[in-house]
Amino acid sequence: MEFKEWFCLKERESFTIDPKVNPEDAKFYFGREEIKNRIKAQMRRSFVEPGVPKMIIYGSFGSGKTQTLFHLEYYLQNERPEACRQNPRTLHLDLEMRSKSDHADWHLQLMETLAKETVTKWVENLFNQVSNLDIELKAIFRDNNIAVAIKNLRMGGDTAFLAWRWLCGQRLGAGDLEHLRVTRNLGDLGAGDMVNTLVGLGRLAERNNEKIIFFMDEAEQFKNVKTGDATESLHDYLRKLSEPSNSSIGFIVGYYALTLDEMAELVVRQDIRTRIGEINYIEIPPLPSIRDVQIFLKELLAELVKQKEAEQKIQSKSLGVSLETYPFTAEAFDMLCEFASQDPTKALPRNLIKAVNECAISAWDERKTIIEPSIVNEIAPLIFG
Amino acid sequence: MSSLVPPDDEYHQKAVDIIKSYDHIELRFNESLHAKLYVCLCQDESRSFALLGSGNLTRNSIENNIEIAMMIYGRSRGREILRELSRWGLERLRTLNDTKLVKKIKFKRR
Q1: Does the CB of B47 have a partner CB in chain A at under 8 Å?
Q2: B29 phi and psi, to 5 degrees?
Q3: Are A222 and A267 in contact (CB under 8 A)?
């Protein structure tokens, strides 16, 4: 018998939840009803004003920031808020910053996540809807060079490739600029030039009945940037993206930090906080009490274990455990919750999931059908100690 | 490992004894396992990496054999592969039917 059958797992190899490996896991958000509802409510409000969500989600390592981002993405895709009139085009990326990374690197990452094919399709659709594409593109992008580059995407081949490179902020030589019929490189006018392109693409998306929302994880990478000029350019980029006038590009950022003070200064400078709004800096705290840990674990087990199969197993083998805590005995379950709650900073979803998994593997090693207190007593100190 | 399959060579036994003496190492045995995978996971994922290939981490392999391996870094598209490999090593491989536990870990798991 395989491990997953041993513990009646639903179509999965273990108790681990990881939407990065298994996209289906994005639907899970165990316990923490209050924070979940608060973030969702805030997101719904943001579609009314300023028109897109702009949020920074922060918390400690393993607190569930990534799961929160994936879950919000899942929520948008499956229960679109009424105020979001277009279909959400959710785009997930893990930010990568080095010591000299600047606004151009960030812009490139966002554009590559959006993808040339997506933008080209939008331009093509627009072309099929309007009588004069030039006029429409100028109205959408409010800049002649950007509009010309966007139009070039329709040309295909090398021209489209060059146009995409230009829109991504890659520097082109004079010959290539002439070929594209643009008078400068994107970014020659600063970070605002690139943000204008992105926000224009957001408006183009809206014309295609889509709303762009970036989910940017691992924003603590901003701390890697050590150069003053690079930091300022990233700050400019973020400030312009945070402007209330941007109602077409949403962003939800995941940041590993225990407090706002721990974040890279460019993210929490007063002008950024004013624009994003204090209410949109949301902390994902550890599970605050033993009761929250119990709820988290019970919901996790209920979702991951095949309930009918487990119930049959409990009865046929007289295991003497309740379905609610299976495969843990009641005593082992309580013991795990107590271990997890002893140090509130360690009552984190990642630790809880790891503890369940390791306890199950340990029981499997001993060919035990249920997880007894002795196993929890051995494993939990290695995780929560 | 001695209770499962005794190592053929003395140097194998020495290596196993050294590994067994460390509290932070879990030792398992699977007779069918031929893969050579080394994964290093860091809290900062961009510093994580995996080495996947034909070679054992032995002097003989390094000095005398012709081996091939691929380094996978936890950056850009390497992240997805790294996550898959670490899941395989941390969960799938440990819970295969014929994988036997030789020595438990006694060190704090991160």
Answers
A1: no
A2: -130, 135
A3: yes
